[in-house]
Amino acid sequence: MRLLRLLFCGLLILPFLANATETIPDDKQVITFKNKKGTVTFNHGLHATVRGIECQSCHHTHEAGQPIKRCGDCHKKKKSPVEGFSVLAPKTSKAYHNKCKGCHKYTLEELQKPAGPTKCKLCHIKDK
After folding, report:
1. Whose CA is closest to 114, among 123, 104, 122, 124?
2. Cβ–Cβ under 8 Å, residues 17 and 30
């Protein structure tokens, strides 16, 4: 009975998983960010499928029917104005740290579920 229930749940979620991976281009499934503190690898496909995170969670300015913008289209190396918004977009590093680290901490502490790293050296990997 348990196996049947698991199979049924798996079949229910399958269309959502397939749909999520179709929206992320192959060259964006895994994204690396190189910086002086070390390379950060972001598994885009994992976050969208296994974790079930909505695109709008990170691509917060996305409008239906429009192409999804890269983070760097609004978030620059320093705070900068964004067309159509009355506030300055935080610089890239601040935006990533707030969004990524914040979500990981929330998932660990509030939801008490496994999540990604929250310590610097666990994301920023120095090249050898």
Report:
1. 104
2. no
* Model confidence band, residue 24 (pLDDT cutoffs 50, 70, 90): confident
For residue 1, give the amino acid letter: M
Tell the burial category of 122 from Cβ atoms under 10 Å away from its Cβ (0-12, 13-18, 19+): exposed
pTM for this entry: 0.69
Q: Which domain holds residue 111?
A: 2-123
- Residue 33 pairs in a beta bridge with 40
d(CA 93, CA 115): 20
Indicate the length of the chain as a whole number. Answer: 128
Residue 128 lies in a domain: no
- Residue 36 CA to its chain's centroid (Å): 21
Residue with tokens 């229930």: 5
Q: Is residue 55 part of a domain?
A: yes
